[in-house]
Amino acid sequence: MVGYIMFLASNDPKVRYGAAFIIASGAFSLGALSSANVAANIVSDTARSSAIGTNVMFGNIGSLVATWSFLPSDSPDYRIGNSLNLATSSSILICSVASLFWMNMDNKKRDRINVEKKLAHLSQKQIQDLDWRHPGFRWKP
């Protein structure tokens, strides 16, 4: 977000050059970190594969949107494309913080549950099929 703000707020080439490095370091690390978070929080192999694929698909949709956001008529500042990227980065931050709070709240709620008592009436197959609904499961923020 800082890089996009710097880029939009300044016309100085040195500031924009620095902003490009900040943008790249944030954007490229986010892809790996989001895939790692998805993989860490999905229990079954099949669901994990599907979730990682879905995560990558949504990440790649950004390339499709960028194709139509950085228009030649908007050059050299590309305010439309950079403003959309700033808005998207802000949305990702808000969703990430909300998810973090929800994961912590749900983990605290799960800490109060008696796991053995909750699973006592279930068969082994039913317990295996619980996935993230298993009372012993904890989110990894």
Automatic annotation (TrEMBL):
Subcellular location: Membrane
Membrane-spanning ranges: 20-40, 52-71, 83-103
Aminoacyl-tRNA synthetase keyword on record: no
Topology term for the membrane: Multi-pass membrane protein
GO terms, molecular function: transmembrane transporter activity
Keywords: Membrane, Transmembrane, Transmembrane helix, Transport
InterPro entries cross-referenced by the UniProt entry: MFS_trans_sf
Entry annotated with the keyword Ion transport: no
Domain of life of the organism encoding this protein: Eukaryota
GO cellular component, one term: membrane
Listed name of the protein: MFS transporter
Originating species: Ajellomyces capsulatus
